[in-house]
Amino acid sequence: IKDHDVFRRGQRGPSQAPVEHQLMVLLKFLGMEGTGSANENLRDVFKTGQGTNEVYRDRVVKAILSLKDRVLFWPGAEEREQIAKQLGKMGFHNCVGIADGTLFPIAFKPAREDADAYNGRKHQWSVSCMIICDHNRIIRAVLNGWPGSTHDDRIIKHMDLHQNPQDYFSVLQYIIGDSAFDVQSFLLSAFKKPAGCTIPREQELFNDAMKTPRVISEHTIGILKGRFPFLRSLRFKLDDDLSTHARMLEYVECAMILHNMLTPEEEQSEWYDEDSDGFSHATDLDDPTRVPPLSSDDDLNRALPPGAPADTRRRQVMTHLEDNHVFH
Fold first, then answer.
1. Antiparallel, parallel or unpaired: β 174-177 and 126-133
2. H-helix or E-strand containing 146?
3. Of 207, 326, 328, whose CA–CA distance to 277 is shortest?
4. Which of 172, 273, 278, 279 has the CA that lies 20 to 30 A from 24?
């Protein structure tokens, strides 16, 4: 980032601090939770003023955001085939990603008329985020900044990926997610299980089989929050001035770009998200006991006919998993 225009010296004024110094100020901010990322703490560590620290952070965030198109992007056709090959070893052939929602707590009550909407299901105040990752725990698509009470299905339906799936998937490809999502031909969700009720055994087993790839998204979000603890308590005072909201989202997106740049890196067990559903660790994708490749005449190798019910592809996958003894 050192050659970014934001670090160029103007015709007037003193020289800037070294880019490495400015970067350290941002990383210290992203790497602490709560008051550890407060300006007072940064001032004590770097012996710089509050205004200076904010200028440093904002410069570096702007420079890192300029890397987004190279680091955080939806995979092209060839790369999607490679992702599908890996996730196919878990039984989900032609799957190119895993969708999951998460909450980023806000340290202060929003001073907005719709403040109650930020009162999320797990934290007093939060913003909701939808993340789609691949098998390598790299974030591939994101929609962030919705009030914490917003349902995951509503958020994903506002993603361009959902509104224009033909631009993101081949006719065979799809992503997977939990039962919060409405099933689509390109979005296979777990079967909903009403409270106090049972669902057919094959649906229960399908949900169990889906836990193996879904643990990847749980780990992705856990690693993201573990690397950048400021995400556990966003110290931004949201009000009706949308510029503050936009600035907060830029910092969150900056953390996601850095996450992708750091992946793969040896993960730490304490990084896993505290909101995890308790899934077991994913097994080795090269495990020879995994599901065999698709046969050429398998239904999953055929495009769905026009007007097919939304859950047709999900039921085809469920049948394939059962036929290949993935269900135990």
1. unpaired
2. strand 139-147
3. 207
4. 273
